[in-house]
């Protein structure tokens, strides 16, 4: 991928034409990823059955071609059903859809990686995923419990060998089960560990991390650009105010006066401005919504551009504060957020 800042002359024109026509950016392995996707995380205890199914169908009808999911969201069966129904209707072909699945913390041992991906494919009833990523660089004790704890309620961790896990992902790509492979929540050191691995066959094409105007990730973004790794920004509109895993002391992003003032100029919402900001930086965004109106609104970001001055104003909002801190796992040896980036 050519970062937009580095494109000289004709290359820049070709790059922007590609973005404008396809709303996609290239990945280092020759595939490409849509700039905007639908996030599908929802608390299974509080979400009515079928909500995800309907949301994905509405999203596809609205023009989304990128769906971000995970085994631990407990709704991949609904995502798969929605995709298959839209294929049956003739609305899309399988190759039009970009689905990202994730390897959970209890499945890091190399011998578990392929069976875990095969289980995801069985749930989705699809032959392959477009991107498969290590969800977190922290391994938990393998077994049926997704969040294993001892008798004292303490999380049970597992020895992490990220390079061995990565080799198992490479084998999944070779087998055609995943078109591309990447990571999530990895810091620079952890990315370098993979990229400097002896015998590396495929480097990560992407790193999915929290990224929004209050947490712009400038250093990690620059490092990833230098190594042709696309940043996929989760929580691009801020996140839910769930105290069990979120820093609720940070102010709500969408009430920010700068985002709202710029939105007024373009007749857009603060959410649309926040999404457009990241897309213009070459950051893929995956806002989660099961609300039909907001799903459609979030997609309406390709009919305007922010000026250089507006981009600088939004960049200046950066507070370097995470919403998603995952402090309950901060004692894990591979907890990624102790490093600067």
Entry keywords:
two-stranded antiparallel ribbon, 10 strands, 12% strand, alpha/beta, eight-stranded parallel sheet, 11 helices, 341 residues, Aldo-keto reductase family 1 member D1, NAD(P)_OxRdtase_dom_sf, single chain, Delta4-3-oxosteroid 5beta-reductase activity, TIM Barrel
Main beta sheet, described?
A: 8 strands, parallel
Number of spatially distinct domains: 1
The fold-level CATH name is TIM Barrel
Encode the helix/strand succession as letters: HEEEHEHEHEHEHEHEHHEHH
Outline the low-pLDDT stretches.
1-8
Strand content: 5-15%
Question: How would you describe the overall organization of this protein?
Answer:
The chain is of the alpha/beta class. It is built from eleven helices and ten strands. It has helices spanning 9-22, 51-62, 76-89, 110-124, 162-174, 188-195, 218-226, 257-266, 270-280, 292-299, 308-315; strands at 24-26, 32-34, 38-39, 66-68, 98-103, 129-134, 178-184, 206-210, 230-234, 284-285. Strands 3-4-5-6-7-8-9-10 form an eight-stranded parallel β-sheet. Helix 2 (51-62) packs across helix 3. The relative contact order is 0.13.
Topology, element by element:
Blueprint: H1 9-22, E1 24-26, E2 32-34, E3 38-39, H2 51-62, E4 66-68, H3 76-89, E5 98-103, H4 110-124, E6 129-134, H5 162-174, E7 178-184, H6 188-195, E8 206-210, H7 218-226, E9 230-234, H8 257-266, H9 270-280, E10 284-285, H10 292-299, H11 308-315
Parallel strand pairs: 3-4, 4-5, 5-6, 6-7, 7-8, 8-9, 9-10
Antiparallel strand pairs: 1-2
Helix pairs in contact: 2-3, 2-10, 4-5, 8-9
């Amino acid at each position: 991928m050519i970062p937009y800042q580095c494109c000289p002359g004709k290359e820049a024109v070709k790059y922007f034409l590609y973005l404008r026509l396809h709303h996609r950016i290239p990945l280092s392995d020759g595939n490409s990823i849509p700039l905007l996707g639908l996030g599908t995380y929802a608390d299974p205890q509080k979400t009515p059955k079928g909500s995800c199914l309907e949301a994905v169908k509405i999203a596809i009808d609205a023009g989304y071609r990128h769906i971000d999911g995970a085994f631990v969201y407990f709704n991949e069966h609904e995502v798969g059903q929605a995709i298959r129904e839209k294929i049956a209707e003739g609305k899309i072909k399988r190759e039009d859809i970009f689905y990202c699945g994730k390897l959970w913390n209890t499945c890091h041992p190399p011998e578990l990686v392929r069976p875990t991906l095969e289980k995801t494919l069985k749930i989705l009833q699809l032959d392959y995923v477009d991107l498969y990523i290590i969800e977190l660089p922290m391994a938990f004790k393998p077994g049926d419990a997704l969040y294993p704890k001892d008798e004292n309620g303490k999380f049970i961790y597992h020895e992490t060998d990220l390079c061995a896990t990565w080799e198992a992902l490479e084998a999944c790509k070779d087998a055609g089960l995943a078109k591309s492979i990447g990571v999530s929540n990895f810091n620079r050191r952890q990315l370098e560990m993979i990229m400097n691995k002896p015998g590396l066959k495929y480097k990560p094409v992407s790193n999915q991390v929290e990224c929004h105007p209050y947490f712009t990730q400038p250093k990690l973004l620059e490092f990833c650009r230098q190594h042709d790794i696309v940043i996929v920004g989760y929580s691009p509109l801020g996140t839910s105010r769930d105290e069990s895993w979120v820093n609720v002391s940070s102010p709500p992003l969408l009430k920010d006066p700068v985002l709202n003032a710029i939105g007024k100029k373009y007749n857009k919402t603060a959410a649309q401005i926040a999404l457009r900001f990241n897309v213009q930086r070459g950051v893929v965004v995956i806002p989660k919504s099961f609300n039909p109106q907001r799903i459609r609104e979030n997609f309406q970001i390709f009919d305007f551009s922010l000026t250089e001055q507006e981009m600088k104003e939004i960049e200046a909002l950066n507070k370097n504060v995470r919403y998603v801190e995952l402090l309950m796992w901060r004692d894990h040896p591979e907890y990624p957020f102790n490093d600067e980036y």
